[in-house]
Design brief:
Number of domains: 2
Radius of gyration: 21 Å
Shape: elongated
Strand order of the largest sheet: 4-3-12-7-8
Structural class: mainly beta
């Protein structure tokens, strides 16, 4: 197995998980994909403070130790970048040129966000909660930080966490040390890293990364300007690897996940229009991935295209065609690889 991340950009640093690493129930931290909008800020955890302000009864300033002393939980959850598979869109949009590896799984440990918000006292007219990261720079002539908001009901969900650990270890600088947000089922853009401020507001947030980036523009599947939220259903093949040479029968294997509902089935095609149902392992947690397998005996030598597609409980099936939109988001088209069968 490839034992290192696959760099995509160097400044800021962005890197993909090698797909064979997804065979692990949780992705090892050194192989967990990295998504940075700006340079990684250097933060002293011993001096760290989180501010909670805005439409609250009592503004709070909490240290990391104070947050960790509150009730906590651990959730095994998939995280996927909204731009995953961007390079397959035609025409290719601007943005980080992700292949298929902007996806990983971790055991996230943290305090339910609701515990903190309720201690501050939520104003009666609050509609959204804004999260401000410590990372930022000048964008289009304006100095800004990475900021995103959540509707109040999502912020108060019991599985929305202020995370300080992944896979039982403190967060690394690339993954948001000392504290980040985590929103299960949503694309990773919602999981603000290096969290330094939470602000409760009484009207919808209109920040740059809320109303311009991470929305669908010019997309046939979504209204213009619709913000991204839950991950689309998707199956990926991790074995065999693309362009592998195969001798005889082989097990095709991969992972599948969805941001809403549950995965119902995974289907495999090796013969064009014919689809066969794969064996799907039961879900072990609400928000994690599932593994699937399909035993394949090629009829004859030659070049084959293997495709995998998934369907969830809400009736969403991966499309055959690559999704297209101006910023390159939400592309969950069927994963296809080519292999050569030698005998």
């Amino acid at each position: 197995m490839n034992d290192s991340l696959k760099p995509v950009t160097n400044c800021p640093f962005n890197a993909e998980t090698p797909l064979p690493a997804l065979a692990h129930p949780v992705t090892p931290i050194p192989l967990f994909y990295v998504r940075n909008h700006f340079d990684t800020p250097q933060i002293d955890g011993n001096r760290y403070q989180l501010q909670i302000e805005g439409a609250v009864a009592q503004p709070l300033v909490l240290t990391l130790d104070q947050i960790k002393a509150l009730p906590s939980k651990t959730s095994r959850t998939v995280m996927e970048c909204a731009g995953n598979a961007r390079i397959y869109m035609n025409p290719r949009p601007p943005g980080t040129p992700w292949n298929m590896g902007a996806i990983s799984v971790a055991d996230w440990t943290g305090t339910p966000l609701a515990e903190v918000l309720q201690r501050a006292g939520i104003g009666n007219e609050v509609v959204e909660v804004v999260f401000v990261g410590a990372d930022g720079e000048v964008v289009e002539g304006k100095k800004m930080k990475y900021e995103r908001s959540l509707p109040l009901n999502i912020a108060l969900h019991s599985d929305t966490l202020l995370v300080w650990a992944m896979n039982g270890e403190p967060l690394t600088p690339h993954h948001g040390y000392p504290l980040r947000l985590f929103v299960p089922g949503w694309y990773g853009m919602a999981a603000v890293k290096w969290l330094e401020q939470i602000r409760l507001i009484t009207r919808p947030f209109e920040g740059y990364f809320q109303t311009y980036h991470y929305v669908y523009w010019g997309d046939d599947y979504a209204p213009d300007g619709e913000p991204l939220q839950q991950m689309q259903v998707r199956a990926l093949i991790y074995t065999p690897v693309p362009n592998a040479t195969i001798d005889g029968p082989v097990t095709i294997a991969g992972i599948v996940w969805t941001g809403t509902g549950a995965v119902m089935r995974v289907e495999i095609s090796t013969e064009g229009e014919y689809w066969h149902e794969a064996d799907l392992e039961p879900a072990t947690t609400t928000y994690s991935m599932q593994c699937w397998r399909y035993a394949w005996s090629p009829a004859q030598p030659g070049r084959y295209t293997i495709r995998a597609r998934a369907t969830d409980s809400r009736g969403h099936t991966q499309p055959l065609a690559q999704r297209s939109n101006q910023l390159g988001y939400g592309n969950n088209a069927v994963h296809a690889i080519q292999v050569h069968v030698r005998s």
